Amino acid sequence: MFINIYMPIYYIGVDKMTIKKNDWVAVQYTGKIAATGEVFDTNKERDLLKFKVGSGMVIPGFDNALIDMEVEQEKEVKIPSNLAYGERNTRVVELPKSSFQDTEKLEQGKEVVVNTNFGPMMLDVKEIKDQTISVILNHPLAGKDLLFNIKLVRILDEKEIQEIEQKLKQNACGPDCSSCGDTCSSK
User: Whole-angstrom Cα distance, residue 68 to residue 17?
Assistant: First the structure.
């Protein structure tokens, strides 16, 4: 005679999978300025942010916050400015006036945010000359401590990783893929 007995099985020494450097993850986040609580970015109504942890694809403090997190875990983390967008730069640089499209919108003594190939930059216009403009360049969030609410949604599977790496490789060359000497455009 056999009797069915249901007993829970306990695995000793087996931990939940935690994130480590070089894992590819998908996260949901909301970023706020720590001093004011003002939301400056969120992806709650957009696609998940997907990146390789520890690779420099996101700011260092965000990368560090993911280490040892578990899937579906949520946390709030304060990131000091030196691990976010850096301290505010005070060095004046001179740029050719021709590198700006709408120079008539620039005013000496005013700050303006412009989009660049490196993302948004805040220009503190110090002096406008005939051929050049003297500015202090900063990311708009430079010098600010940030507060992030992060939810680790999932670890990416191999297929997703390959798709992202292929897109990154294709986009690394810019509009003329032949410029890097690779044959990615023919793949």
Answer: 9
Backbone angles phi, psi at 186, to 5 degrees: -95, 5
Buried b (16+ CB within 10 A) or exposed e, 137-171: bbbebbebbbbbbbbbbebbeeeeeeebeeeeeee
* CB contact at 8 A, 146 and 84: yes
pLDDT at 84: 97
pTM score: 0.76
Domain extent, residue 152, equals 17-87+143-158
In a domain, 9, yes or no: no
Domain co-membership, 80 together with 147: yes
What pLDDT, on a 0 to 100 scale, did the predictor assign at position 180?
54
Residues 26 and 41 in one domain: yes
Instruction: Give domain status of residue 2, yes or no.
Output: no
Mean pLDDT of 27-38: 98
Q: Of the given ranges (9-18, 124-133, 178-187), which has the lowest mean pLDDT?
A: 178-187
- Name the burial class of residue 25, with classes exposed (0-12), middle (13-18) and buried (19+) by CB atoms within 10 angstroms of its CB: buried
